Amino acid sequence: MTAVTRTIRIGSSNGLHARPAKLFAQAVKDSGIPVTISKGSGAPVNAASILGVIALGAEKGDYVTLAADGDTAEQVLDTLAELLTTDHDEN
After folding, report:
1. Model pLDDT for residues 52-91, shown as the tens digit of each residue
2. Per-residue pLDDT for 21 more than 80?
3. What is the dihedral of CA 71, 45, 17, 11, to 10 degrees?
4. Does the annotation count 88 as an active-site position?
5. Cβ pair 24, 17 in contact under 8 A
6. From the candidates 6, 14, 17, 59, which is the catalytic residue?
7. Could you tell me which of 10, 2, 3, 27 has the C-alpha nearest to residue 64?
8. Measured between alpha carbons, how far is residue 58 from residues 3, 13, 75, 81 in Å?
9. How far apart are alpha carbons 82 and 68 in whole angstroms?
10. Model pTM score
11. Which residues does residue 5 pair with via DSSP β-bridges, in sequence order?
């Protein structure tokens, strides 16, 4: 099966720091399929790892690429993309 990928622009005004990274990593875990996230030419990291996601250093406006395998990969990446494009720092 071919991996499904999406390139998404980060929407949170403070980037992928603790709160959005936690929400994102939890959503990946809940999806039940392996997902990786990468920034630029950097190596992909396990998207279910909060520390891995934070370590990317993704700021607002940066582009990240998600990749997933599995029968539900399209739907999972759609959901994750929505999470990443939403500003979780507005509250």
Report:
1. 999 999 999 999 999 999 999 999 999 999 999 988 766 4
2. yes
3. -50
4. no
5. no
6. 17
7. 10
8. 22, 11, 23, 14
9. 15
10. 0.91
11. 67
